[in-house]
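Lab meeting, item 3. Inverse folding demo.
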């Protein structure tokens, strides 16, 4: 009888862990940067590479930093949502971080599909992406007026995520 108790206990513990794991959303990976200051950076603007854009330029504003690339298939899914948002809600400042991409490809992509960004910056080496803990594109960060990351969206922004999570948070932060 005692021989069966240990394997049964181990089995029940494994079932409990599996059950908990199945209830988690893989898009909600915790980010160690949430509630921490945005890493400092200086990158060339996509439209004017001779001019730099820094995180400090955005102090005092609530804004969205969307990590995207012309080679990203999921970015095409998300992009119409951002284009529509930029047309209908001028209070939401959307900035793009063009990730590991060629400048010409990125500019052609924005011309073809629309440009929802106030400005897009070029991270051709992916170094700022590393500092942000980017797993892949698209990813989006919501940054408050003090330059603190308040939310990280992994994967495409859908209309539901926009309405249920991102816009309410941005309004709460003062956008």
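The presenter then showed the designed sequence:
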């Amino acid at each position: 009888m005692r021989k069966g108790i240990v394997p049964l206990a181990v089995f029940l513990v494994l079932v409990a862990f599996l059950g908990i794991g199945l209830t988690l959303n893989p898009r909600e990976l915790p980010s160690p940067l949430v509630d921490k200051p945005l890493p400092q950076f200086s990158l060339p603007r996509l439209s004017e590479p001779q001019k730099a854009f820094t995180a400090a330029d955005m102090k005092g504003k609530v804004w969205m930093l969307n990590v995207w690339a012309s080679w990203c298939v999921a970015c095409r899914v998300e992009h119409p949502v951002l284009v529509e948002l930029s047309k209908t809600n001028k209070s939401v400042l959307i900035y793009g971080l063009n990730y590991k991409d060629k400048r010409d490809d990125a500019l052609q992509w924005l011309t073809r599909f629309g440009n929802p960004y106030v400005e897009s910056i070029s991270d051709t080496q992916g170094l700022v992406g590393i500092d942000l803990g980017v797993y892949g594109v698209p990813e989006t960060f919501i940054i408050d007026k003090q330059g603190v990351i308040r939310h990280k969206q992994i994967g495409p922004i859908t209309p539901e995520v926009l309405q249920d999570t991102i816009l309410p948070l941005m309004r709460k932060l003062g956008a």
